Amino acid sequence: MILITSKFGATRQYPDQGMMRRTLAAFLGSLDRQTDKRFRLFISCHDIPEGFRYPWLEWCPMVVDSECQKTNYWKRFPANLDDPGQRIVYPYGGKGEDSGRKTAHSAIMAGQWAYQNNIKDFWMLRMDSDDMLARDMVETILKLEDQGFEAVYNRRCHIFDAKTGEVGEYNYRYSTTCNAIRMRIEGNDLPCWLYLCRNHTRFISDVRKDRIKANEIDWAYCITTNSGNSISARPTLTREKWAKRIKMTDELSDRYGLDRF
Q1: What spatial distance separates the first Cα and last Cα of the chain, rounded to whole Å?
Q2: Per residue in 97-109, is it b (16+ CB within 10 Å) or e — as a string?
Q3: What is the per-residue pLDDT across 235-258, written as a single tens digit (0 to 9) for each?
Q4: How far apart are CA 59 and CA 64, in angstroms?
Q5: How high is the pLDDT of residue 93?
Q6: Within a domain: residue 242?
Q7: Beta bridge pairs of residue 170
Q8: pLDDT under 70 in the chain at which residues?
Q9: How many C-beta neighbours within 10 Å does residue 254 have?
Q10: Which runs of consecutive H residues, i.e. helices, occur in the chain?
Q11: 131 part of a folded domain
C-alpha cells in the first residue's frame, strides 16, 4: 500500500481559477490511471473544490472560516498514534507557510488513517497537487519491497508547459518533490511519519546519512510549469533552468495522461 500525501491551497488564493481546476484534474487523473490501485491520497486543503471525488481520495480540511483567512493547524503534533495532539487557529499566512503546514498535516492524517485501519507496513509518497505521476509508479515502488529498498527519490523527471503544451526533460541536481519512504507502525508509534516534511532537496543526503537503502528512479512524474498558480512562480518551459524541451510522443502522453490535460 502507498499513502500519497499532497496539499491544495484555498481555492480563492489561485489567480487562474480555470488553470487551477485543470492542473488538479490532471494530477488526480494521473492517479486514477495507475496500473496498481493499492494507494490512497491524503490531500490537505481549506475549502474542498467541487467536482473531485474518487474512492481513494481523502480530503483533509483545515478550514476555519468561509473566507479562508484562518487555518486550523497543530500547536503540538501527536506524540504517538493514540495521542490527539493539539490544534489551534492561526492566520492563513503566506503561500510558503501554508504549504509547509499542509505538508505536515497530510502526513499526520495519512499515518493516523493507516493506524486506524490496522495497516502496519506501507509507503508514504509526497507529491504536489499540480503534477502528474507516471501511470506505473505505484506498481514500480511496490515491486522494490522485494529488493530491500526503503526509499525512492528522483532527480530526472519530465516537465509540461500547461499553456503551450510543450514537454521537456527536467534534470535537477537535487531530489525533486516526488520522494517516497517505507514506514512501519510499531505499537502506536510511527517514527518516520514526518520524514518527507523536511526540505525535499535534502532527501538524498538524508537517506544516505540515515543509512536507508534508497533507489533512484528516472521519469517518475511530470512537473507542471507555466500555470500561473505555482508558489514558486514557475515560468514557461523554455525558461526553466533545469529543463530541456523534447518532442511530445504518444508514449509520454500516455505515461502521464497529458492528452487529458
Answers
A1: 27
A2: ebbebbbbbbbbb
A3: 999 999 999 999 999 999 999 999
A4: 15
A5: 87
A6: no
A7: 157, 243
A8: none
A9: 13
A10: 17-32, 95-116, 137-143, 203-209, 250-256
A11: yes
Q: Give the domain CATH number at 118.
A: 3.90.550
13 within some domain: yes
Q: With respect to residue 240, please indicate whether it lies within any of the assigned structural domains.
A: no
Burial class (CB in 10 A: 0-12, 13-18, 19+), 235: middle
Domain containing residue 127: 2-153+176-217
pLDDT tens-digit series, residues 137-161: 999 999 998 899 999 999 999 999 9
Q: Please tell me whether residue 89 adopts helix, strand or coil conformation.
A: strand
pTM above 0.85, yes or no: yes
- Please tell me the distance from the alpha carbon of residue 14 to that of residue 53, in angstroms, as a whole number: 20
Strand partners for 151: 181, 214
Length of the chain measured in residues: 261
Q: In total, how many domains does the chain have?
A: 1
**Which cell goes with 172?**
535537477
Phi/psi-derived region of residue 118, left when phi > 0, alpha when psi is between -120 and 50, beta in every other case: left
Query: And the C-alpha cell for 239?
Result: 525558461
